[in-house]
Amino acid sequence: MPLDSRRMLVALAVTAGLASVAGLPFANAQALASAPILASHSPHLHAADGVVEAVRDTTVSTQVAGAVVQLLVRVGDRVQAGQELLRLDAQPARQGALASAAQVEAARTQAQLADSELARQKQLFARQYISQAGLERAQAQAQAAHAQMRALQAQAGAASAQAGLHIVRAPYSGIVSELPVALGDMATPGRPLLRLYDPAALRITASVPQTLQLADAPAQWEIPSLPGSRASVALNDIQRLPTIDRSTHTAQWRLPLPGDLTGAAPGMFARLWLPVAPGASAQPGASSVPTPALAVPASAVLRRGELTAVYVLDEQQRPRLRQVRLGQAPASPASAADAQASIPVLSGLRAGERVVLDPQAAARVR
User: Fold this and answer.
1) Which residues pair with 130 in a beta bridge?
2) What's the pLDDT tens digit per position in 294-324?
3) Are 78 and 94 found together in one domain?
4) Which of 43, 53, 336, 80 is nearest to 214 (CA)?
5) Distance CA 37, CA 342 (A)
6) The CATH number of the domain where 250 resides is what?
7) Which residue from 156, 190, 207, 223 puts its CA 20 to 30 A from 118's CA?
8) Model confidence over 278-290: pLDDT tens digits?
9) pLDDT, position 81
10) Full residue range of the structural domain in which residue 155 is found
11) Same domain flag for 30 and 131
């Protein structure tokens, strides 16, 4: 069933339930306490839905092929930079490294023999027992032996480094988020072996309409699943990417999160509240006709599941339930003063209407 249909059914069910609440009927509906729709002195706040992302989110793979013989971490483990994560079968690479080392020893011996032969040839040349050509030949043989030794040393170093690539290490400190391989799997260059992210470097990425006109006021951010995570932020602290999505006509905005934020993880739903300039529209393609900023007392708002509504007095001063769309709401009321705080109204009400301050009392009116 579509989401709009479900919301409509929920609203009808709640309306029917509230209409059937048992209680003494009011003799006069005008006895209900009400308040007019107020003008909001704070700027409109546009809600931009976003997601928590990791600034450093790395898919770790290997440069060599080999079977996975050891898994040293599990999903959710915290690892340190340079820590071993898994091992691949390095037996063929180790044998190649040993063979290269043996070739280096043989070449070193040949170079030593060439040096000894050159020393003897120099003595013979000093006594004029050999010609200049014989001495130069001995020198060339010694240089070739040393060059051969250096080449084999380089090959041995490459073979040793190749053997070291069979140990996969963490590029930085973080948390293992995915481990798509198991013991015995064959790893190949470029195949993902695990995924790692840095929990100390998170950000909120949200899509913001390109036509949004901002007011000179602080923005706010929140992660609804983390109580108490709402905080204010200056607009200059939000990074705005210079590109616009051609299909949605929105820009990507990025806000770094505090490094000590507990409980946040990549993929969490987040929201940016951006101040809209007076008279400007927050929706792309909407009319540019200025609309008054309205607000209602927090105590007048009725919340039942997905329904957000208020009781509005009609021409006969009888309360009528009406669904509304609100802006950013304050925290849960902890006192009478908090309950009278104003909540911006985005749609559903008009200036000059009156709302009932006690929804429970309005529900008992017949």
Assistant:
1) none
2) 788 888 888 887 788 999 988 888 898 999 8
3) no
4) 43
5) 10
6) 2.40.30.170
7) 156
8) 655 545 444 333 4
9) 95
10) 90-160
11) no
